[in-house]
Design brief:
Chain lengths: 286, 181
């Protein structure tokens, strides 16, 4: 594939030469229709957010899979809705177990963190099941290894998570998100939030926002996690334009404005006020 | 309308180039045209903000890439549900070598296709590709490595005797998304 660039360029040039699009006027008309849909939709905002919180269920190895939540679901704050959080064990031979094995496989490639794998949370949404898993950092770690995924009932699906360089995750940031599964009807958004936060607000294009309660993995972690399923109406744009972490009183303690970045780089999140995380006062309890 | 000042010029200058860049990703010319048109429609709806970007085309390309992935998943689901093969994809007139590349690209998961096009056609760095696809750089490196390996095997064996030896790539729905190299 040494000439890959040349071959791709030939394809691109041929496609550009032979393409026939509807023109700028048609694009503008379509854009106006989309805007009308979005405006109409926001008048009757229905926020369906799957949120829940569980403690971590420590898995001590491949053979000991017990995903019992350590604590009750976190209280939810309006307009957050918490539904269908799974709390039972993950049984051998099920698609859920296979999905967990895939996540575990990836987490074991990470060169930091505790040897155990924690199921931070799991649940069901839109006829699918999701899992967020991580390895608790140990003293000296600057990064955090975590993954999340969404699968259909038959086990087909995908997962993503924090990227690694040479097996090392990037330095922990208090407020991040990853772009997850996107379908015609919803967008999955998963990320981390400061431990002091009681909820995180996911701000969408057009100003719509949804509030999400945390998945609290316990004090062994410098951050909490969240997962949200943001509904799409008529294919409306559910692009994330900002995140805001709020404490129990509703005060903003960290936020990032991805709208300021055309590439919406999740790493551009900027804390609004000091939050503790490794390197800035977060303490491990040995 | 003042909000759309400059949009038509932007459209005229970018649309063909974008279709060319999306075609290797979709493998179907009509599909590439549709996702680019939709992305440009979305751009028109927020042009008053986008026109101030240094490179509005990068935003449109990113949206089109996302739409291509989204539509690809939906079409595969529909094809599976109907248990039939759809009409042959539309391709422009190209050389046999380039046609072989189209066929080889179609067998790759969409994320690998996107990464290869952005990196090898547009010359983006791994970090730039990661930003465009909203994914960690480690994932991009992995997609590039796997994609090049698969393409290399297929294109090197492009002679008649070699084509049947490779296993097809796993469907995207079951692809393990690597987290790093």
């Amino acid at each position: 594939v040494n000439d890959l660039h040349d071959r791709l360029a030939e394809l691109a040039e041929a496609a550009a030469r032979d393409s026939h699009t509807e023109g700028a006027a048609a694009a503008i008309r379509r854009g106006r229709r989309r805007r009308r849909h979005r405006t109409g939709g926001s008048a009757a905002v229905a926020l369906l957010v799957v949120v829940a919180a569980v403690g971590a269920a420590r898995l001590t190895g491949w053979g000991a899979v017990d995903a019992r939540p350590a604590g009750p679901p976190a209280s939810t704050l309006p307009p957050t809705v918490s539904i269908d959080m799974s709390t039972g064990p993950i049984l051998d031979g099920t698609p859920e177990r296979q999905a967990l094995d895939d996540l575990t496989h990836e987490l074991r490639r990470c060169r930091t963190g505790d040897a155990g794998i924690d199921v931070i949370g799991k649940g069901r949404a839109h006829g699918r099941f999701w899992i967020v898993a991580a390895r608790a950092p140990v003293p000296g770690d600057k990064g955090l290894c975590w993954v999340n995924g969404l699968w259909a009932r038959d086990g087909s699906g995908n997962f993503s998570g924090i990227g690694m360089t040479g097996g090392l995750p990037p330095e922990i940031k208090p407020l991040t998100y990853t772009g997850g599964t996107v379908t015609d009807t919803f967008v999955e958004v998963t990320g981390t939030m400061p431990r002091q936060a009681a909820r995180v607000r996911v701000v969408l294009a057009g100003g719509t926002s949804v509030d999400v309660a945390p998945l609290d993995p316990g004090d062994g972690y410098p951050v909490k996690f969240f997962i949200a399923f943001v509904p799409r109406r008529d294919g409306s744009d559910a692009e994330v334009t900002g995140l805001r972490a709020l404490d129990a009183s509703g005060r903003t303690i960290a936020e990032c404005d991805t709208a300021a970045d055309p590439y919406q780089d999740p790493s551009s999140c900027t804390p609004k006020s000091p939050v503790k995380y490794p390197g800035e006062g977060w303490r491990y309890e040995d | 309308m003042a909000d759309l000042d400059g949009f038509e010029e932007f459209y005229a200058g970018a649309v063909s180039r974008l279709v060319g860049q999306l075609f290797p990703v979709t493998g179907d010319l009509h599909e590439a045209e549709e996702v680019v048109q939709e992305a440009l429609a979305r751009a028109s709806a927020r042009w008053s903000r986008l026109r101030d970007y240094d490179v509005p085309e990068a935003w449109v390309r990113r949206v089109a890439m996302n739409l291509a992935a989204e539509r690809g998943r939906r079409l595969r689901r529909q094809a599976r549900a109907l248990l039939r093969v759809g009409p042959p994809p539309a391709v422009p007139a190209v050389s046999p070598d380039a046609l072989a590349l189209v066929e080889a690209l179609r067998l790759l998961p969409i994320r690998q296709r996107q990464a290869i096009v952005l990196h090898h056609l547009l010359g983006m760095t791994v970090v730039e590709v990661a930003r465009t696809l909203s994914t960690p750089p480690g994932s991009v490196k992995s997609w590039l490595a796997r994609g090049r390996r698969a393409l290399g095997a297929r294109l090197a064996d492009d002679e008649p005797a070699g084509l049947g030896r490779d296993r097809p790539a796993r469907p995207e729905g079951t692809t393990r998304k690597a987290l790093g190299p």
